[in-house]
Amino acid sequence: MIVRQLERSPFKTAFSVLGIALATAVLVVGTFSQDAIDYIIDFQFSRVQQFDVDVVLADQTDDSAVSSIRNLSGVLAIDPYRGYSVRLVNGRLYKRVGIAGLNSGDGLYQLLDIGGNRVELPEHGIVLSSALADTLGVHAGDQVRVESLEGRRNEFDVPVSALIDDFSGLAAYMHLDTLNRHMHERFTIGGAYLSIDENKATDLYTQLREMPGVVAVNVKETTVNNFQETIAENMGLMRPFLIGFASVIAFGVVYNSARISLSERSRDLATLRVLGFTKYEVSVIQLGELVIITAFAVPTGLLLGYVTAWYVSISTASELVRIPFIIEPRTFATSAGVVVLASLVSGLIVLRKLGDLDLVSVLKSRE
């Protein structure tokens, strides 16, 4: 009886499935951004940036500052770095970026691709982000010209050793010693990454800020907290809206479908009650139609949301930010749960109207 009723109204059934599927897809697309942000935070601040503090220095041409910082109480490890403002040129294409000079090996700043695999920093050559490589039109193995925009304004050609996928900006990396050599500088650093003892953090921050040559002391934990607060504030407004919007869609589609079905079949259902069907059995017939529609709609919506999220991920990629295509299982579960709950509530509301079936008029019928 349930299947026959669905077959009688194929267009109504199809549009009901589509409506609930779209509500599910809205939730998946709206929630996957939180999964992506959580992944970026873990990737960037836990796996790539393995330091606790970033100490920015005025340009140093010897290792005195590094030695002084290394000897401070609470410093467990130190990893100096240098940043240069340059213009990368490939034929007629060029881009002004910053090159980060890092130490290779087990430093406190790791180069990882988007899959979390470690990318070795070569002693000779340059590593570019994939977005920057696309802008310059180069691939691994090609030559790129580096034109310094500070200091002696040196220029040199360097091979592109590897490309790395990342999530923001346009980045270039070289070995610190190699970069200094090309810039004709013996030992120049612009800062140092520190791993510290948290029990001595307060005193260490005070000493660092009082040191000559220290421009800024950036605590990674503070940066992460500020980032999360900003994201939480934005998502805190958006997520309830998406859940409410999807719930209204699902509720409206199911309620409308159930009301139409009940209106069309009220005489048939009343006849079944007269013939001896219990109220529970009649309810199963009426609710079964909604269950089948929802059962088809939710998986369809999850698939539609998955594809749409993938499209959003690739279509919004820019030089400033790239959103990784990450969807956690809990996102699918939450999306399906919200839609099923909204459908269930609307179905139960309609079922209450089964008590209003006019059994007397059926008994008086000549048929």
Would you kindly provide a written description of the structure presented here, covering whatever features stand out?
- With 367 residues, the chain is an alpha+beta fold.
- It folds into two domains: 2-45 and 227-364, no CATH class; 75-196, Barwin-like endoglucanases (Beta Barrel), CATH 2.40.40.
- Helix content is 54%, strand content 20%.
- The chain has ten helices and nine strands.
- It has helices at residues 2-8, 10-48, 64-70, 130-136, 176-182, 201-210, 220-274, 279-315, 329-351, 359-364; strands spanning 53-60, 75-90, 93-102, 126-129, 143-148, 155-164, 172-175, 189-196, 214-219.
- A six-stranded mixed β-barrel has the order 2-3-7-4-6-5.
- The longest helix is centred in the C-terminal third of the chain and has 55 residues, at 220-274.
- It is elongated, with a radius of gyration of 31 Å.
- The two termini are 20 Å apart.
- The model has no long low-confidence stretch (mean pLDDT 80).
